[in-house]
Design brief:
451 residues; alpha+beta
Amino acid sequence: MIKKILLFSVIISQLTVSCSSSDEPVNAPEGSLTEQIANIIKQPYSKLTPAEQKVKLEAEANVMLVQMDKSKTSGAIEAIQNLGDLLSISSVDIFDGKNDNEIEDILNVSGVYGIYTWNNSTKIWVKTTSSTELKFVFPAKASQTANNTQLSSKSNSSTIKVKIEDSYNWQSGTTINDEFYLPTSVDAILTIDNKQAATFATTAKYTGTVETPDESSFKMVLNDGYTYEISGSKKATQNTTKSSFTYNGKNLVSFTAGSTADIDALIEDDALIQHQGKANGLVQIMDNFIIVAEMDIATQTKDEEALEKSLVYPAHPDYQSPKADYKAYYTAENTYNKKYSEANVVNSNKNSKLILVSKKDGTKIADVVYRSEKGYSYDNELPVWVTDSNYTAGGYWTNNGNGEIITIQHYDEVLYLKFNDSTEVAMSSYFSTGFDDLETKFENFLKAFER
């Protein structure tokens, strides 16, 4: 819902700055707060102050915020999230090796089969042999114990076989690899209480033995009314990717990246002509807004690769040495996480110039910039050294409840709107945190075609 306190504070600030020296009101709002907001919404963005633009933006974006937040209560999405949590509690290896596979692996491999059933008592997956499908049987919600949900997938294989590192033999110094064929298509169905809740479909086309697809697509359809699609293709001079998230057929947000010609075809409205010939990316938010983007994904990818080489992850302490400094290690890990996120923000702001524009009157509302913020964190107990002559090293490290607690901090790259008065507001305040998630998935998908 519209955040009344924020809106009220903006209206009040407008009242305090809109009085002349003769104490005569200039454009002072009249009527109730609801009436004042309604009046602002009727005005084009070009005629509003930055403070008033925020009020109108929040009112118009409220529809998307409500729909995006409703998607988080989707039964299908909750079930998929619970599957991800269960896979983190008890890992499985669909390749019959020692890999910890995640949901993405289920929808991106072919030629692997088996039925995995969650045992709530022992908190493990029990595998049953199958030669026709890959299926997971589990509870739809974390609060449930009954296995009322199934995710079943079938695939068609390409001729391209890839290897991934499965395990490492420290005695022989050799790496053991898993091998599987990349799929040309995977179809999956999610059922809850024997009723279809969602479908997933992926397709891919390859050239020769090149592992990166020439064309690739993914589509998720939820019975709750939501549909998410993403696709990409290689071209001789320019790669093109598209993505959309809709509710009952109505666009909530869509992403497009390609050539300037591709984007020009999408912004033919008279009010938006000024942006033609420059943008190679476009985000359409409902029927009201667009984000015009000038992106250099190739340079962004190179900058990220350079960052990986320049910023070295701290080496893990020697667990056989009583002098190992675990506190220094985790402190260095926190420093690494912070520097890595901040560097990613610098690279993104350098290689992506984004502006939020009113689709109706073509007015620029704000620049869209990246900022680094604290994200997920957890407390970790430092191990303590226990002296024991039975050990070659004279003792061993252990977590016995007596160690110091240190917080491990991760960081997120978050989108902010920077208005003409230089104030910044997190984009999620207007468009839900779900927007950041979709934007991240789109960027990762786009970068895959650059490698």
